[in-house]
Design a protein that fits this description.
By secondary structure, the protein is an alpha/beta fold. It contains six helices and five strands; from the N terminus they run βαβαβαβαβαα. It has a five-stranded parallel beta sheet with strand order 2-1-3-5-4, sandwiched between helices. It is globular. It binds D-ribose (RB5). D-ribose binds next to helix 3.
Length: about 140
């Protein structure tokens, strides 16, 4: 699996830690920046990650900003992206089971690192249930 990962300055430290976690699991990471704590604009990074997933360059994506809110909105503007902002493990499991979320958003200033890594693990390891949820997910991508 290849994961595209992106953040603004508010999510930079979390992105770096999530990247280390993914690499520790031998998951290929496409790091789309940002690469420092210098102030940048989250819409550009959310869009870049969304486009990497929607184009198939990456299988899934992870985006981080201060709260996870702005960058999740940006990622969700890209057609085919289902980005879910998760603040606990239950949300991460549910968004995989019911929404087939292909991008995970988290907040570097709002979520403790230990929780963020547990969210990441749950989101990676939980499968989409399909069935009655498939039709609803299809509706998300309909014109
Ligand atoms: C940047 O200061 C902050 O606005 C951003 O990281 C994010 O929280 C936006 O939703």
């Amino acid at each position: 699996m290849k994961i595209a990962i992106a953040s603004d300055h508010g999510g930079f430290e979390l992105k770096e830690n999530v990247k280390k976690y993914l690499e520790g699991r031998d998951i290929e990471v496409m790091d789309l920046g940002t690469y420092s704590e210098e102030s940048v604009d989250y819409p550009a990074y959310g869009k870049a990650c969304g486009q990497a997933v929607a184009s198939g360059e990456a299988d899934r994506g992870i985006v981080c900003c201060g709260t996870g809110i702005g960058i999740s909105i940006a990622a969700n503007k890209v057609k085919g992206v289902r980005c879910a902002l998760c603040t606990d493990v239950h949300m991460a499991e549910m968004t995989r089971k019911h929404n087939d979320a292909n991008v995970l958003a988290m907040g570097g200033r709002t979520t403790e690192l230990e929780t963020a890594l547990a969210i990441t693990a749950a989101w990676l390891d939980t499968e989409f249930e399909g069935g009655r949820h498939q039709r609803r997910v299809d509706m998300l991508d309909a014109e």
